[in-house]
Amino acid sequence: xxxxxxxxxxxxxxxxxxxxxxxxxxxxxxxxxxxxxxxxxxxxxxxxxxxxxxxxxxxxxxxxxxxxxxxxxxxxxxxxxxxxxxxxxxxxxxxxxxxxxxxxxxxxxxxxxxxxxxxxxxxxxxxxxxxxxxxxxxxxxxxxxxxxxxx
Amino acid sequence: xxxxxxxxxxxxxxxxxxxxxxxxxxxxxxxxxxxxxxxxxxxxxxxxxxxxxxxxxxxxxxxxxxxxxxxxxxxxxxxxxxxxxxxxxxxxxxxxxxxxxxxxxxxxxxxxxxxxxxxxxxxxxxxxxxxxxxxxxxxxxxxxxxxxxxxxx
Lengths: 151, 153
What we know:
heterodimer, A: alpha+beta, Alpha-Beta Plaits, 2 domains, B: Arc Repressor Mutant, subunit A, 4-stranded antiparallel sheet, 5 helices
């Protein structure tokens, strides 16, 4: 259902989602009307779901970012659902992923300082249900962050 | 130094986090603000660097990328291979979306997209395992993912 022209269009769009449509149409080598029509169709098909802005949390004083990798106690039948529901209530959790592998769940947690992180970890994270084990990776630097795909 | 936000700023950030294509006029109507007042607030937040980059939300499976894997990578020969060599080589791999230098059990956290598991195996064997200095690698296949609004309540 997707052809090479769709892929080309998305490749140019993902490189710079904020660019004006005229620039996108030119880069993708198609008339403006075709560009609109194709993007509308990709949206209707659900391939292009939308666009979002990221937030630079460090500019808001959240200088600490920790990646918590958890294994859950899978003997509890609703361990995943109950854990995820409770994790969603922690405001400092910015991402939740579930995995197939050694790790069951990953939480990205931000904090204003190491003291603040310690508070969140003790009061909000350790009290989440069905945790069997936690490992923490502390973010030092982001070397590449490009949520684009090689289309 | 961090910026002071009021409730309206936080509402603007929450809205743009969900939909980056919102125009100042539509956003203002939702918040009971004029278009120029909304625009000024967005401009201030953008200039302060709070509003980050715009990203597409794509259905990766429909585009033929059915597998996303998070890798934990430990360098084997610390000191002998420079971090710069590893970093320069890893960022050049198109299937690698994010590279984070971390402290803990691993040295780097990578996010990798692939067409399917055999394709992932190819990327892992030919591109990741051949990186300069690469040691132990742990792979976890992504099953589900959600972005949360963060502390903007």
